[in-house]
Amino acid sequence: MAAVQSRELPWREPWTVAKALTAHFGTNGLAWLDGDGSPLGATAFLGADPREVVVCRGLPGSPGARDPFLALDDLQRRGGAWLGWLAYEAGAWVEPGGRWHHPELPTLWAARYDPLLRFDLTYRRLWLGGDDPARLSAWADLVADLSPQQAPPEPPGQPIDPALWHWHTSGATFAAQVEQLLERIAAGDLFQANLTACCEVLLPEPPDPLALYQRLRLHCPAPFGGLVVAGDAAVLCASPERFLRVSPDGRIETRPIKGTRPRHGDPEADAAAAAALITSPKDRAENVMIVDLLRNDLGRVCVPGSIQVPQLVGLESYRQVHHLTSVVEGQLRADRTVVELLRACWPGGSISGAPKIRACQRLGELEPLARGPYCGSLFRFGADDSFDSNLLIRSVMLQGRRLRAHAGCGIVADSDPAGEAEELGWKLQPLLEALA
């Protein structure tokens, strides 16, 4: 493979460039790993017209199924810039004996992009990188011809009536499922489990995924948002949670979130909500439990003694919610790869539970549908051997005319079933409001 070249281009807004790319190449294959301009979300990546695509479907034992981790290992060895998603049910390839629903969307969708655009959202700088000189020149000309104006405040598109959403799990059923998990916890079967539910709507015609994502990013800005379009399917998210980042020298960072409260327009009420979250024994215990789980996961592939927790249960505030976030770091062993790290940590601790595999089994017994990309990850393998990924929370899945939105709550011994059902509703509310 030829050496990667990089060119700095005149600044253009990501939305403006994404619109131009879809007009030129079509929406299929568009991948946009986005940020919100904050220190955590200072960089965005945008690719279109991929050079090759890798798709894995199915679970172990099903006809034509392929191990997504073996596919990831192959594409990492081949190098280049890859963007895509890994679904929650990829966990079946880590622990085949669990109860895993068959996802409708691929367990892995990954595409190699040459060139790839990188946006510095803080300093408004833009670079184009790749190893094909002809494509680099053509893309540079395309971007240079665009207007430097700001993105429109709201893209065109038909708003979605909130009353049209159908819930697969009612509030009463969700509360009853929480009761069942509490019984499991009291019996010592579990310590924590992240129970999820979803709602969906069938639209008159397939929507424009780029317009939907622009609505989402304007109303719910997040440091680890993104959009990936694969044929008539798309994954859209406004995630505040980083899953795993690996620098070229093997430094690892993960940022688990556990503990959430809604924001308030009144400053005093908002400060009170933040204070209640910080001092909540339930939320703090839940967060620390997942930190311990992730330390154990990282310990499988990290240099002994390198795992540190520079931030334990810190408050992070976003436009819609307050969160408790911890930071865990480590050094990847020289004889381990990023894909081995992914496999050791999959699925993410904050969206499964503890013990992890037992939690996944119990959740599979309660949840009626596959999660698919939800609670999986959008990821990027860099041509420089870097890696970054989010956890696909605050997400919407599109397939044809159907939109599906998921949310979840961490259940521990002192969870209140009615309170967890209420939390589920206000976690989803910003997403549904963005689309409405």
Number of E-type strands: 22
Helices, by number, come to: 10
Query: Would you identify the CATH architecture?
Result: 4-Layer Sandwich
Major β-sheet, in short?
12 strands, antiparallel
- Which parts are unreliable, with pLDDT below 50 for 5 consecutive residues or more? none
Number of domains: 1
CATH superfamily: Anthranilate synthase
> Strand-residue fraction?
25-35%
Overall helicity: 25-40%
CATH fold node name: Anthranilate synthase
Descriptors:
single chain, 436 residues, alpha+beta, Anthranilate synthase, 29% strand
Detailed description of the structure:
- This protein has helices spanning 14-25, 68-78, 133-144, 171-186, 209-219, 267-278, 281-299, 338-345, 356-366, 417-435, and strands at residues 5-9, 31-33, 43-47, 52-56, 82-86, 108-112, 116-120, 125-130, 166-167, 192-202, 224-230, 233-239, 242-246, 251-254, 257-262, 308-317, 321-331, 353-354, 377-381, 387-390, 395-399, 402-411.
- The strands form 2 sheets. Strands 1, 2, 3, 7, 8, 9, 10, 11, 12, 18, 21 and 22 form a 12-stranded antiparallel β-sheet that branches.
- The model has no long low-confidence stretch (mean pLDDT 94).
- Helix 2 packs antiparallel against helix 8, helix 4 (171-186) crosses helix 10 and helix 5 packs across helix 10.
- The protein is α+β, with helices and mostly antiparallel strands and 436 residues long.
- The chain has one domain (5-435): Anthranilate synthase.
